[in-house]
Amino acid sequence: MYVGIPRERFVDERRVAISPAGVREIVEMGADVYVEHNAGAAAGWQDEEYEKRGATIAYSAEEAICRADLLLKILPPTIEESQMMREDQTLMSYLQLPLARKEVFENLRDKSVIAIGLENIWYEGGGHPVRRAMSEIAGALAIHMAAQYLQAQEGGRGILMGGLPGVPPASVGIVGAGVVGGTAARSALDIGAHVIMVDQHVAPLRRATLHYGKRLQTAIINENNLEKLCKFVDVLICAVMVEDHRAPHIITREMVQSMKPRSVIIDASIDQGGVCETSRPTHISNPIYEEEGVIHYCVPNMPAMVPRTATRAFQNQVLPLIKSLVKQGVVDALRTHPYMHTGLNMFDGIVTRESVAESFGTEWTPPLEVLQ
What we know:
Blueprint: E1 2-5, H1 20-28, E2 32-36, H2 47-52, E3 56-58, H3 61-66, E4 70-72, H4 79-84, E5 90-93, H5 102-110, E6 114-117, H6 129-149, E7 171-175, H7 179-191, E8 194-199, H8 202-212, E9 216-220, H9 223-232, E10 235-238, H10 253-257, E11 264-267, E12 288-291, E13 294-297, H11 307-328, H12 330-336, E14 344-347, E15 350-351, H13 354-360, H14 367-370
Parallel strand pairs: 1-2, 1-4, 2-3, 4-5, 5-6, 7-8, 7-10, 8-9, 10-11, 11-13
Antiparallel strand pairs: 6-14, 12-13, 14-15
């Protein structure tokens, strides 16, 4: 099997789908690995390190993509990448296919690509392992960024996140009690911040309280509670995720207007459209803007700020899947692996995920039926 690793081309993206150590493991399984020139450079891995581990360096995206039987990426394919792909390839990446451009969907369908969405892979008792790894990084970084942009030289309120004896800490509101929100809560509490978490369900709030104790205040999401939260906090972390759908705009412009001047919003849901009505995507090299007197940080690929950590965390979850595909072949691995089929979005031109079919107005067939 030929495995292709192209360089990620999203603005300021520094991650790579696999490290040199990961390449070595795949090569030892009998695969040929093609890594695009400088694919790992931004994460600190040079071409020579990949070559020493058995990879062949491809000097264009087209070569890395077209040679591959299995194409491995982190971010969803661009229109250009989907055009480069050849028929009957297997693509494994974050797909977010229900939110993709129609041209990408049509290219994958018309070329009969087997498309596996890593963010969709789920197994009982373990949740979404690949998504969780990236969400944990985003949650931790959200608090780092909030602490930075609260500083006066960054335009913030001039507040030390954890406070001092005799001086109260910053108040942090977290909207969403999932992995991003829970990791952000832990990081903020460890610093010493005052943290309030809201979610629309009691169960995740109960779990968070069991983890973090009475230091964490909780409330149910409703309009009244969100209005009070926005008026009170110095930092608002938005961490709502609705699988395969755009995030709901539950923080209105009027709520943002009510926030303290020079407070900070970190909208970690911006890759799905954002939770705040005032949010719009930014980039790592130009991450903030001010609107309604509030600093907005809306970077959709936050884990790319720590690309070595993020690549290794990604690889830890993805490498066992790759090994199964290389050892058994794609179709047999999808049939027999206990949970890989849960990420299958398309197979041989057939849509195999309901949300994708809804987005593009087409029919779908459950994965286990097409794999029979």
